[in-house]
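Example 228.
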Amino acid sequence: MKKILVYFIVLMAIPFALKAQQEPFHKFAPLPYAYDALEPYIDKMTMEIHYDKHHRAYYNNFMAAMKGTELEKTPMLSIFANISTQPVAIRNNAGGYWNHEMFWNCMKPNGGGTPSGKLGDAITSTFGSFDNFKKQFAEAGVKRFGSGWVWLVVGKDGKLFISSTPNQDNPLMNIAEQPGTPVFCLDVWEHAYYLKYQNKRGDYINAWWNVVNWDFAQKLYAEALEKK
Ligand code: MN3
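Predicted structure in complex with manganese (III) ion:
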């Protein structure tokens, strides 16, 4: 009787084992909220196209570019730490995939406000005030020539700084001019705002502060400090 029970359990487990095997190591995560959840600041159509077309294309191209290589089972942080050894298709699409997943989490419905706790304290002491931080962060976004990102980063010394990267690069990449651990980011590619804000990138950034997710940044900041 016991043997039959063991056989039964093993048989029941097979579909789960197969599913685990088929599931890719690098996953395409669902958007953490509805497409229209960030209205009126970020419009529904922009979110649909940004997530379901742009982000998905980066993911699919990343999957295709690494097919059959060890990257299929390599953690993103290791890929980024050695990105200089990879073809440009990996650099652009791994970056595009990972940066966007972070960006979705840096926003939430009914977001905004100011960060509290340790991150809030660190921002105030580093930049003088929260308003100064916002001003410098927005300036980095407006000044980024062409397409790219703005980041709030924890450096090797544990201190915060603002940086901007071109294209789909990020501060985790070993080719970054200012490397570190990002805790907060803003997409300033035109596809992130053009439908609603056209050429007015500054207006997009002003509106974006209303949907930022400081809880997420706070969590990443605590994790970054723990790793020191
Ligand atoms: Mn984008």
